[in-house]
Design a protein that fits this description.
By secondary structure, the chain is mostly helical. It has one domain. The protein is elongated and about 60 Å long. The mean pLDDT is 82. This is VanZ family protein.
């Protein structure tokens, strides 16, 4: 649990460093995107494949730690929908902060979508197992009526 918490704090520092650092050189090139798919389509249409992979893949990878660490740090956040909602809300706040306070950065809904997809991927691949390993399922009184006896199968 402590390792996951330290990992989450470390991830928050890296996230802040990557997303909230000013970029005065790109200020003239930036524009906000509130239409899902616009930025993704723009990257896929450009001839520089390396930049496309870096931008799209980087945003997906940026979300993966949420899917891995959130179920371990916050057991009530376990579940595909909960991880997705928590990640989408967190990344939307990061994007809003970028657009409002950081020079050369703007809000991009596609970044939120890609980050959330990464978190869901991380949760499905390993986060679910990690969460259950650290926080086993609780056994409620009604489980004795709903669970089958292994001898009956």
């Amino acid at each position: 649990m402590l390792v996951a918490f330290v990992g989450m704090v470390g991830f928050a520092v890296v996230l802040a460093r990557l997303t909230l650092e000013p970029s005065a050189a790109s200020e003239a090139l930036t524009h906000s995107n509130f239409t899902p798919g616009d930025s993704i389509g723009g990257y896929l249409e450009q001839p520089a494949f390396r930049d496309t992979v870096k931008q799209l893949g980087g945003n997906v990878l940026l979300g993966v730690p949420f899917g891995l660490l959130l179920p371990v740090v916050l057991p009530r956040a376990r579940g595909l929908v909960r991880v997705g909602v928590a990640t989408a809300l967190t990344m939307a706040l990061v994007e809003l902060a970028q657009g409002a306070f950081v020079t050369g950065r703007t809000f991009d809904i596609d970044d939120v979508i890609l980050n959330t997809a990464g978190a869901l991927l991380g949760y499905l691949v390993l986060g679910r197992r990690l969460g259950r390993a650290v926080h086993p399922r609780r056994h409620h009184w009604w489980h004795r009526f709903t669970q089958r006896d292994p001898a009956d199968v």
